[in-house]
Amino acid sequence: MADRGNRGNRGGDRGRGGDRGRGGDRGRGGDRGRGGDRGRGGGDRGGGRGRGGFDRGDYGGGRGRGGYDRGDYGGGRGRGGYDRGGGDRGGYRGSFSGFRGDGPRGGGRGRGGRRDASPGISRAFGYGDATPSPNAEVAQLETKIVSRQSASLASITSQMGGMSVKGKKRGGGNVGGKPPPPMNDRLPARPAFGSQGRPVVLWANYFKVNVTRDTFFKYTIEVKKKMTKSAAPKKASKRGGKASSRPAPGTEGPQEAEQVKEVRGRELFLVIKATLAKLLEQDKSFVAASEFKSQIITLKKINLPENPIIIQTPKDEGDDEVLDTYNVHFHGPSEIDVGSMKKYLMSSADEPVANADVAFPRFPEAIDALNTILGHGPRSDFDKIGTIGSHRFFPFGDDKVIEKLTHNWHALSAARGYFQSTRLGTGRILLNVNVTHGVFRLSGSLTDLFDNLGLRAAPKTDFQAMKKLRAFGKFLPKARAWRTMILATGKTIRRSKTINGLATAGDVRKGRRVANPPKFDRDWEFAGPKNVQFWQETDGGGGRYISVFDYFKQSFGITLKDYPLIDMGSVQNPFTYIPAEMVEIQPGQAIKATLTMEETTAMLEFACRSPYSNALSISAASRQALNLDDNALDKFGLSVDKRLLTVQGRILNAPMVSYIANGKKVDVAPSKGQWNMRSVKIVKPGKRIERWTWVNLMAEHQRRRAVDKSVVVSYGEWLVSMGIAINKTPMDPFREVADPSNLENVFDWLKKNDVQLLVIILPEKDSTGLYSRIKTLGDCTYGIHTSCVVAAQFAKAAPAYFANVGLKINLKAGGTNHRLREEFGILSDGKAMIVGYDVTHPTNMSQKKGSEAPSLAGFVSSIDRDLAQWPAIAWEQPSRQEMLSDKLLEAFMIRLDTWNKHNGGKYPENIVIYRDGVSESQFSQVLDNELPIIREACRKKYPATQPQPKLTILVAVKRHQTRFYPTSADDMSKSGNTINGTVVDRGVTQARYWDFFMTAHEALQGTARPAHYTILLDEIFRARFGDKATDELERLTHELCYLFGRATKAVSICPPAYYADIVCERARQHRPEHYGAGDDTESMSTVSGAGVGTAGRQVHVNLRDSMYYI
């Protein structure tokens, strides 16, 4: 998509005001995921990657956009997730800036934006008094731990070749193929805390958790429902009132009484809640917490005179006479040792602590128990708190904050809530709390929903109404709703039921055959109560057809309106059509939905909030929503501090970047993470593009938007002026304007005429399906580079837009756009290869077993010392497979040979790998499963005369919940965020491990999300730089963020990881049958295997060693 410019500040939740901002691009990318909650007991886990999620921490964050032909059409990290907390719109898609005036202008016009209730753009968060210094005792303990490790583990890197973090022992992790070392071998010890950069104190979105208890007990529970005669429902209305003489299914006889039904959702919640109440009744000192699914945490062992416990709950709200019966089986208990965890956190000693080395992350059972206790309060209020996953809570009571997403008659809403997760810090237990956003079904009376959207029952001849009703009905299936029922006695009850959708004539045509099925009036599809008749039995054994309207009028004196009827049938009673007046959708129902462009934009605007606003919400509103001040926590010996933590950070200096001017090297100094190319040219052109052409790809009704040839000629001249090796005059095209249906004919002509590059002018930015066809034909079928532009922007012939797309063309051709002025560290000798790989998974897609969409792996590696060219490989593996398969072996060997070819016949001495998006619980899998494959690839390729390479592996994660906020306006960016270059490696980390948070980019709007890097293996930096290893690795990572080739700004995550993500996105475009336009994906650091009919869809041999994806 084309650049949009800054959106300006927000102001009230609903208002659209805000500056429309001209400069900068909107950077929609940001990371996608929905992942977040995947690891055990941790918020900052990486989790699955997911495309959905709008609560993004960084709203497009820092990923330079670079024009319409983004390589990933919709963004390396998707169009914006809404489930990861707040969002900055800074340039993750970094757009070209400059060529105009003195400042970076880049980008088209912003859209304005929904105003935030408390913008606070120019305010630093605080509590009204002096900002406290970071905890001195914690800082001393951190320093003591690192100093002790540095003294005792100076040679640790020599042992890291094949270590295992978990019990799974595949072997082969080390060079000699020996079994993995014992469990107490750990991740690389932190060599030192970083020392470079200007010190700064920051707020972090963490509260300290105080735990006085040393032991808890955990029971797992299993709930089974029994269908008994006593639970048989009374005679009730079939359509809100009609009496039924048949016994309920499953209650016909003794044999049926023992049948078991799966219990879940609200029903399971009510059973567990009743179970806890019964146990409290038996023992007034009983204290327990539950996640209301499968476990209970207690302070002491439960006295169970009977197991299972028999629980009875009312079948219907408002009717206690009819009960359902359940058996609740208790298993356990297991003892949760919290005391050892507290001892471990407070100790600086290096000796093993009980249960500390069982798994990584440490003490998962204790962390899960604390999460269950802290989550019990908000989960207890089922009707007022919606939940997504294990850690995200959304108020739906009086304090709800929602935004309707009804742009296309979809019954959806965006909701604001809070994420919480217990984390381990040095010397303390922490609670990570963040603002989060999710997509939910609209709740409330269906009649209100229909009225608000202007919907009524409609005949087939009303095409517009039919279209709207289909759209509305798309998200109704599986919705929980209250169905009002009128008993024969006249008593009204409510029953929780599931909606199948709107009632349609097609239900009868396609449904199973029953005696006397409903009748729909002719030419009515989404029918109302007057247009549908059902069979009403009479006392004499006969019956008659009566309309739903007449039945309610005659039986209950209710006059129904012409709303569509609702299908709430079951397998036993398939045609149960209920009037809208009798149905109310329950609140808090999250839904996996593929949003339209308009809905996505509205969602992102809703989620994009200033750092001040988010910090304010976390410090105040979240405490009420999450029950953090609830007296129930006291009973468990838990309390949560009232104030956010402060931590020590540092602001690293930005590197100088180099271009060419008048044939000489020219250095450019970035300002606020970005720079312009005024009066300079690219560093090195790629292979000369002699034969190139263009086409306006537009349908007949769009051809008024066609761009004239003169604009294309000007574009060619501009590319030459940038220093790109291209014929300034394009070839005459096959046709200046071609219909999309003739796309294959266009490519056939290109192939016959040896065309190297096709510029495709599209009528609008959202031609996603067409874009997939173009990229599949160009990348896979014909092997011809393609560059897509938007007619409206391209026709303006704006230098910024021309140059923006030109940067990508030079990269596709193998060129270098800019480089770092200073080579340093492992880059100085030109013997290091940098690698990035990633995996994207299908999510939010209806898939039949055996025909699931494959997961897709993307792999990139550097081949030159300028770190400008990153050729890619993509492949499939089984759907949702987490770890990379053996195809990694082939990919790694291919890229080793590519590096060898470009570097004088030598293989690299050092290989630094940025593994994108792995959760903490998967660290061991990287080391146990993937590291041996990488070792094997090196063994196969390196000759006996050259030593095996030294490896360093980092996991790069953007999908986490940690945020930092300025404590002073002096250390704040224009958008209210931390200043670009901010790094944090203490305060909310564990000193024993080597990790750091880095905000390399300038967040233009919203709340900046730092990237989190964790070192899993280090054979390079500590051995070479000693206690300066931390500074060297942080500098490398930071300055790499200034080398994203299609941008003139720093990006928010290291380019190897970012490029790999874009490769995955392009691979999705190559498989539209699996990943249609707008499908949501979960992107992870994993790999794929088997797609149906697409495994052979590989990039054409002509493009395999190029950056075709950019």
Automatic annotation (TrEMBL):
Occurrences of domain Piwi (ranges): 757-1072
Basic and acidic residues composition-biased segments: 1-58, 80-91
Region Disordered: start-end pairs: 1-133, 159-181, 228-260
Record GO terms (molecular function): RNA binding
Domain of life: Eukaryota
Gly residues bias (residue ranges): 100-110
Name recorded for this polypeptide: Piwi domain-containing protein
Phylogenetic lineage: Eukaryota, Fungi, Dikarya, Ascomycota, Pezizomycotina
